[in-house]
Task: structure prediction
Amino acid sequence: MEHNISEQIKFRRFKEIPAVIPPSKELIMIASLIDKMPEPNIEAHPEKLKQVLKTSREFLSKYLTLNPIPYVKEYKLFNVTKIEINGYIHPFNLPVKKVKNNDMFYGCSNEIIYFNTTDFLKYRWIELSSNLTEVSSLSYTHELTHTQLNHFEGIVNDYNNVEFLSIFLELVQALETKEDESLLILHDNLRLRELQSSIIELDKYATTYDDKIKEVLIEGTSYLHSTLKAYQLFFIYYYGNKETKYKIMHYIQEVFNHRLTVEGLLKKFNITFTNSQNKDDMNMYLKRRF
Result:
Protein backbone atom coordinates (compact mmCIF):
# COMPACT_ATOMS: atom_id res chain seq x y z
CA MET A 1 0.00 0.00 0.00
CA GLU A 2 1.39 3.39 -1.03
CA HIS A 3 1.14 6.35 1.31
CA ASN A 4 1.06 10.03 0.53
CA ILE A 5 3.90 12.35 1.52
CA SER A 6 2.20 13.59 4.68
CA GLU A 7 1.82 10.01 5.93
CA GLN A 8 5.41 9.20 4.95
CA ILE A 9 6.65 12.17 6.99
CA LYS A 10 4.80 10.88 10.05
CA PHE A 11 5.99 7.29 9.54
CA ARG A 12 9.57 8.54 9.23
CA ARG A 13 9.17 10.30 12.58
CA PHE A 14 9.66 13.90 11.51
CA LYS A 15 8.20 16.34 13.99
CA GLU A 16 5.85 18.17 11.65
CA ILE A 17 4.59 18.44 8.09
CA PRO A 18 6.20 21.53 6.51
CA ALA A 19 4.03 24.35 5.25
CA VAL A 20 3.76 25.16 1.57
CA ILE A 21 4.16 28.90 0.99
CA PRO A 22 4.52 30.97 -2.21
CA PRO A 23 8.11 31.72 -3.28
CA SER A 24 9.71 35.04 -2.37
CA LYS A 25 10.77 37.68 -4.91
CA GLU A 26 14.36 36.53 -4.37
CA LEU A 27 13.44 32.96 -5.38
CA ILE A 28 11.67 34.19 -8.50
CA MET A 29 14.86 36.09 -9.42
CA ILE A 30 16.96 32.95 -8.84
CA ALA A 31 14.64 31.04 -11.17
CA SER A 32 15.19 33.77 -13.75
CA LEU A 33 18.98 33.47 -13.37
CA ILE A 34 18.79 29.72 -13.90
CA ASP A 35 16.59 30.22 -16.95
CA LYS A 36 19.38 32.28 -18.54
CA MET A 37 21.99 29.63 -17.76
CA PRO A 38 23.41 28.31 -21.05
CA GLU A 39 22.96 24.66 -21.87
CA PRO A 40 26.26 22.78 -21.48
CA ASN A 41 28.04 21.92 -24.71
CA ILE A 42 29.20 18.62 -23.22
CA GLU A 43 27.45 15.28 -22.85
CA ALA A 44 27.53 12.74 -20.05
CA HIS A 45 29.70 9.78 -21.00
CA PRO A 46 28.12 6.30 -20.71
CA GLU A 47 29.60 4.13 -17.97
CA LYS A 48 29.37 0.55 -16.77
CA LEU A 49 27.79 -0.09 -13.37
CA LYS A 50 31.12 -1.27 -11.97
CA GLN A 51 32.74 2.09 -12.76
CA VAL A 52 29.76 4.07 -11.45
CA LEU A 53 30.00 2.32 -8.08
CA LYS A 54 33.80 2.57 -8.00
CA THR A 55 33.83 6.34 -8.58
CA SER A 56 31.32 7.01 -5.83
CA ARG A 57 32.90 4.65 -3.31
CA GLU A 58 36.38 6.06 -3.87
CA PHE A 59 35.11 9.61 -3.38
CA LEU A 60 33.24 8.81 -0.16
CA SER A 61 36.10 6.72 1.23
CA LYS A 62 38.54 9.56 0.62
CA TYR A 63 36.57 12.12 2.63
CA LEU A 64 34.27 10.22 5.00
CA THR A 65 33.71 6.99 6.90
CA LEU A 66 30.33 5.38 6.35
CA ASN A 67 28.73 3.49 9.21
CA PRO A 68 26.97 0.09 9.02
CA ILE A 69 23.24 0.28 8.29
CA PRO A 70 20.20 -1.90 9.14
CA TYR A 71 19.53 -4.25 6.23
CA VAL A 72 16.79 -6.73 5.48
CA LYS A 73 16.55 -9.26 2.64
CA GLU A 74 13.22 -10.94 1.99
CA TYR A 75 11.90 -13.73 -0.17
CA LYS A 76 8.49 -15.17 -1.01
CA LEU A 77 7.39 -18.67 0.02
CA PHE A 78 3.86 -19.63 -1.04
CA ASN A 79 2.99 -15.92 -1.30
CA VAL A 80 4.19 -15.33 2.25
CA THR A 81 7.05 -12.87 2.81
CA LYS A 82 9.93 -14.43 4.74
CA ILE A 83 13.08 -12.76 6.04
CA GLU A 84 16.34 -14.27 4.81
CA ILE A 85 18.79 -11.71 6.26
CA ASN A 86 18.15 -9.22 9.04
CA GLY A 87 21.17 -7.38 10.37
CA TYR A 88 23.72 -4.65 9.75
CA ILE A 89 25.90 -4.30 6.65
CA HIS A 90 28.27 -1.74 5.18
CA PRO A 91 26.41 0.58 2.77
CA PHE A 92 28.74 -0.44 -0.09
CA ASN A 93 27.35 -3.98 0.29
CA LEU A 94 23.75 -2.84 -0.16
CA PRO A 95 22.49 -4.39 -3.44
CA VAL A 96 22.22 -2.05 -6.42
CA LYS A 97 19.50 -2.61 -9.02
CA LYS A 98 19.23 -1.03 -12.46
CA VAL A 99 15.68 -0.04 -13.35
CA LYS A 100 14.17 1.20 -16.59
CA ASN A 101 14.15 4.96 -16.27
CA ASN A 102 15.22 7.40 -18.96
CA ASP A 103 16.32 9.93 -16.35
CA MET A 104 20.06 9.28 -15.95
CA PHE A 105 19.91 11.28 -12.69
CA TYR A 106 17.43 8.83 -11.15
CA GLY A 107 18.27 7.16 -7.86
CA CYS A 108 16.24 5.69 -5.01
CA SER A 109 16.98 3.87 -1.77
CA ASN A 110 14.38 1.15 -1.28
CA GLU A 111 13.44 1.04 2.38
CA ILE A 112 10.93 -0.66 4.63
CA ILE A 113 9.41 1.02 7.67
CA TYR A 114 8.49 -0.88 10.82
CA PHE A 115 6.25 0.36 13.58
CA ASN A 116 7.01 0.32 17.31
CA THR A 117 10.60 -0.92 16.90
CA THR A 118 13.99 0.64 17.59
CA ASP A 119 15.18 0.05 14.01
CA PHE A 120 12.06 1.62 12.52
CA LEU A 121 13.60 1.83 9.05
CA LYS A 122 15.71 -0.74 7.20
CA TYR A 123 17.27 -0.71 3.75
CA ARG A 124 16.70 -3.30 1.03
CA TRP A 125 18.54 -2.01 -2.05
CA ILE A 126 19.48 1.06 -4.06
CA GLU A 127 18.01 1.72 -7.50
CA LEU A 128 19.78 3.51 -10.35
CA SER A 129 18.63 4.25 -13.88
CA SER A 130 19.63 1.63 -16.45
CA ASN A 131 20.74 4.63 -18.53
CA LEU A 132 24.10 4.70 -16.76
CA THR A 133 26.47 7.64 -17.28
CA GLU A 134 29.16 9.40 -15.27
CA VAL A 135 26.32 11.34 -13.62
CA SER A 136 24.97 8.07 -12.17
CA SER A 137 27.80 7.95 -9.63
CA LEU A 138 26.48 11.23 -8.19
CA SER A 139 23.04 9.63 -7.80
CA TYR A 140 24.65 6.64 -6.08
CA THR A 141 26.49 8.95 -3.68
CA HIS A 142 23.18 10.74 -3.05
CA GLU A 143 21.49 7.49 -2.00
CA LEU A 144 24.46 6.26 0.06
CA THR A 145 24.29 9.54 1.98
CA HIS A 146 20.64 8.83 2.78
CA THR A 147 21.68 5.51 4.31
CA GLN A 148 23.67 7.41 6.92
CA LEU A 149 20.67 9.47 7.97
CA ASN A 150 17.24 8.04 7.23
CA HIS A 151 17.15 5.25 9.83
CA PHE A 152 18.32 7.38 12.75
CA GLU A 153 15.48 9.27 14.38
CA GLY A 154 16.27 12.90 15.20
CA ILE A 155 19.38 13.30 13.02
CA VAL A 156 17.24 15.27 10.53
CA ASN A 157 14.45 17.06 12.35
CA ASP A 158 13.01 19.20 9.57
CA TYR A 159 11.70 17.36 6.52
CA ASN A 160 12.75 20.32 4.39
CA ASN A 161 16.38 19.38 5.14
CA VAL A 162 16.09 15.71 4.22
CA GLU A 163 17.86 16.08 0.83
CA PHE A 164 20.39 18.71 1.91
CA LEU A 165 23.47 16.57 2.60
CA SER A 166 22.80 14.20 -0.29
CA ILE A 167 22.74 17.11 -2.74
CA PHE A 168 25.77 18.77 -1.16
CA LEU A 169 27.88 15.62 -1.51
CA GLU A 170 26.77 15.30 -5.15
CA LEU A 171 28.23 18.76 -5.69
CA VAL A 172 31.51 18.04 -3.95
CA GLN A 173 31.98 14.78 -5.81
CA ALA A 174 31.22 16.45 -9.14
CA LEU A 175 33.81 19.13 -8.36
CA GLU A 176 36.50 16.79 -7.08
CA THR A 177 36.10 14.11 -9.78
CA LYS A 178 37.02 16.28 -12.78
CA GLU A 179 39.37 19.25 -12.56
CA ASP A 180 37.86 20.91 -15.63
CA GLU A 181 34.50 21.05 -13.79
CA SER A 182 32.74 19.37 -16.72
CA LEU A 183 30.92 16.96 -14.40
CA LEU A 184 29.97 19.82 -12.09
CA ILE A 185 28.55 21.74 -15.07
CA LEU A 186 26.48 18.72 -16.09
CA HIS A 187 25.29 18.32 -12.51
CA ASP A 188 24.37 21.99 -12.17
CA ASN A 189 22.35 21.86 -15.35
CA LEU A 190 20.28 18.96 -13.98
CA ARG A 191 19.97 20.01 -10.34
CA LEU A 192 19.41 23.73 -10.92
CA ARG A 193 16.83 23.10 -13.64
CA GLU A 194 14.97 20.99 -11.08
CA LEU A 195 15.21 23.88 -8.62
CA GLN A 196 13.83 26.26 -11.23
CA SER A 197 10.89 23.91 -11.89
CA SER A 198 10.16 23.67 -8.15
CA ILE A 199 10.08 27.47 -7.84
CA ILE A 200 7.76 27.82 -10.85
CA GLU A 201 5.39 25.10 -9.60
CA LEU A 202 5.32 26.62 -6.14
CA ASP A 203 4.58 30.06 -7.57
CA LYS A 204 1.73 28.62 -9.62
CA TYR A 205 0.09 26.25 -7.15
CA ALA A 206 1.08 27.23 -3.58
CA THR A 207 -2.37 28.61 -2.77
CA THR A 208 -4.28 25.64 -4.20
CA TYR A 209 -6.88 23.80 -2.17
CA ASP A 210 -6.33 20.56 -4.08
CA ASP A 211 -4.94 18.04 -1.58
CA LYS A 212 -3.20 15.94 -4.23
CA ILE A 213 -1.33 18.95 -5.59
CA LYS A 214 -0.47 19.99 -2.04
CA GLU A 215 1.16 16.60 -1.47
CA VAL A 216 3.34 17.07 -4.56
CA LEU A 217 4.26 20.58 -3.41
CA ILE A 218 5.34 19.35 0.03
CA GLU A 219 7.95 17.10 -1.59
CA GLY A 220 8.91 19.81 -4.08
CA THR A 221 9.32 22.30 -1.23
CA SER A 222 11.67 19.90 0.54
CA TYR A 223 13.87 19.65 -2.56
CA LEU A 224 13.74 23.43 -2.95
CA HIS A 225 14.87 24.10 0.63
CA SER A 226 17.48 21.34 0.54
CA THR A 227 18.91 22.40 -2.83
CA LEU A 228 19.26 26.04 -1.85
CA LYS A 229 20.97 25.16 1.43
CA ALA A 230 23.21 22.59 -0.27
CA TYR A 231 24.39 25.19 -2.77
CA GLN A 232 24.91 27.75 -0.02
CA LEU A 233 27.22 25.35 1.81
CA PHE A 234 28.85 24.42 -1.50
CA PHE A 235 29.65 28.07 -2.20
CA ILE A 236 31.53 28.11 1.13
CA TYR A 237 33.33 24.90 0.11
CA TYR A 238 34.01 25.97 -3.48
CA TYR A 239 35.56 29.35 -2.60
CA GLY A 240 37.02 28.21 0.71
CA ASN A 241 40.58 27.19 1.62
CA LYS A 242 41.72 23.72 2.65
CA GLU A 243 40.96 24.40 6.30
CA THR A 244 37.37 25.41 5.48
CA LYS A 245 36.86 22.33 3.31
CA TYR A 246 38.24 20.07 6.03
CA LYS A 247 35.96 21.70 8.60
CA ILE A 248 32.88 21.06 6.48
CA MET A 249 33.75 17.40 5.95
CA HIS A 250 34.56 17.01 9.64
CA TYR A 251 31.10 18.19 10.64
CA ILE A 252 29.45 15.96 8.04
CA GLN A 253 31.30 13.03 9.62
CA GLU A 254 29.93 14.14 12.98
CA VAL A 255 26.43 13.96 11.47
CA PHE A 256 27.13 10.49 10.05
CA ASN A 257 28.35 9.43 13.51
CA HIS A 258 25.10 10.79 15.01
CA ARG A 259 26.90 13.32 17.20
CA LEU A 260 25.49 16.32 15.35
CA THR A 261 22.14 16.93 13.69
CA VAL A 262 21.78 18.24 10.15
CA GLU A 263 20.20 21.35 11.64
CA GLY A 264 23.22 21.71 13.93
CA LEU A 265 25.54 21.56 10.93
CA LEU A 266 23.54 24.25 9.13
CA LYS A 267 23.73 26.44 12.22
CA LYS A 268 27.53 26.13 12.38
CA PHE A 269 27.76 27.71 8.94
CA ASN A 270 24.88 30.14 9.52
CA ILE A 271 22.83 28.69 6.68
CA THR A 272 19.09 29.33 6.74
CA PHE A 273 16.36 29.16 4.14
CA THR A 274 16.28 32.96 4.09
CA ASN A 275 19.96 33.62 3.50
CA SER A 276 20.24 30.75 1.02
CA GLN A 277 17.98 32.76 -1.29
CA ASN A 278 20.81 35.20 -2.03
CA LYS A 279 20.61 35.79 -5.78
CA ASP A 280 24.01 37.52 -5.81
CA ASP A 281 25.73 34.36 -4.53
CA MET A 282 24.01 32.27 -7.19
CA ASN A 283 24.77 34.82 -9.90
CA MET A 284 28.48 34.91 -9.01
CA TYR A 285 28.65 31.10 -9.07
CA LEU A 286 26.89 30.81 -12.43
CA LYS A 287 28.98 33.57 -14.01
CA ARG A 288 32.22 31.69 -13.33
CA ARG A 289 31.34 29.58 -16.40
CA PHE A 290 31.31 32.39 -18.94
